[in-house]
Amino acid sequence: MLAIYPRSAFDVYNKIKINYPSNIDAICEEIYKACTGMGTDEEMLIKILGPRSPNDRALISYRYKELFNTPLRDLVKGETSGDLGFLMQLICMSLPQAEAYIIHRACKGAGTSEHLLYPILVGRSDAEMNVLKKTYFEMYEEDLAVMLNAELSGDFHQIIMLALQELQIEYKSSFHTKEKVEEDAEMLYKAGEGKWGTDEGTFVKTLFSCPPQHLENVNKAYTEKHGHDIINAIQSEFGGTATDALVYFVRLTLEPFKLLTERLEASMAGLGTDEMALSSFLVRYHPYLSKIKPIFEDKHKISLRERIHGDTEGRHRELLLHVVDAPSSEGAFA
Q1: CA quadruple 167, 172, 178, 179: dihedral positive or negative?
Q2: How many CB atoms lie within 10 A of CB 231?
Q3: Averages of pLDDT over each 10 residues, the chain, 334 residues
Q4: CA–CA separation, 73 vs 51, rounded Å?
Q5: CA distance 322 to 98
Q6: C-alpha to C-alpha distance for 80 and 64, rounded to whole angstroms
Q7: Radius of gyration over alpha carbons of the chain, in Å?
Q8: CB-CB contact of 304 with 292 (8 Å)
Q9: HSE-up of 192 (CA within 13 Å, CB side)?
């Protein structure tokens, strides 16, 4: 399970006072000047926000609202548009706000963009899910579960609603024993391949309750007993986006960086880049780009930076490359 929220996200959630860097007010003033007057200075915005770490960008968004009594994302929303505008809004928010915004965009357009939803909602820690739920309600005055319940259908609906319930149990060697491994592997089989008609609810609940170390052991036990792994079982028992979501969950646990490298390439493969998916990915998984970049280059024989440069254009490309080059750690204001 990958943790992606910076420290400041939990400070805000827990109502802990933020100690801002001494020069943050000057940075907020620069942004204010870039977005007021005769049109937006997009170049200045890109230079100010693009090179920042996720935590630094979050601190800027929090402080800007305190200073000017308006969310930075609202100001940018009115001043930029298109692919650049979408990415600019993402980096003008804290990461929980950016995820809430992506979810809202995915559900409120013409048809639900399910491929943007499940990477955000499955495989999250209880702590991050609680922050996300609260943030969504604060931004849109709507309960996340209620909204998704109305928007989704079929097996995918059931998977997402169960993901929201925070079913995963903390790993304990005294509980997650060899016997528990065999029990859960058999539970998955009986609810899936061993049953005439899949018991989707039991299968997904069992899967989502497994902490990473336990799931790895369950997958090994399943493979040894049935000749193939849990992913094969999912692919034979589910279809469509439901399959994609469950496979994503398993791979995010067992081989996270290989999965994320493939997803990043997929957003740029084929006829035309999926700019929304690409922007969402780079902002959400920014803390892990240092691990993803070498895997990407080794597999595709081209650097991630070169790949993005060749598949995007204009100021959107410029901002994407700033994000790719930005520090992934807590960062430092300068």
Answers
A1: negative
A2: 17
A3: 90 93 94 77 86 91 94 79 90 95 89 92 94 97 97 96 92 96 97 89 96 97 97 96 98 96 92 90 94 96 96 93 85 46
A4: 17
A5: 18
A6: 18
A7: 21
A8: yes
A9: 26
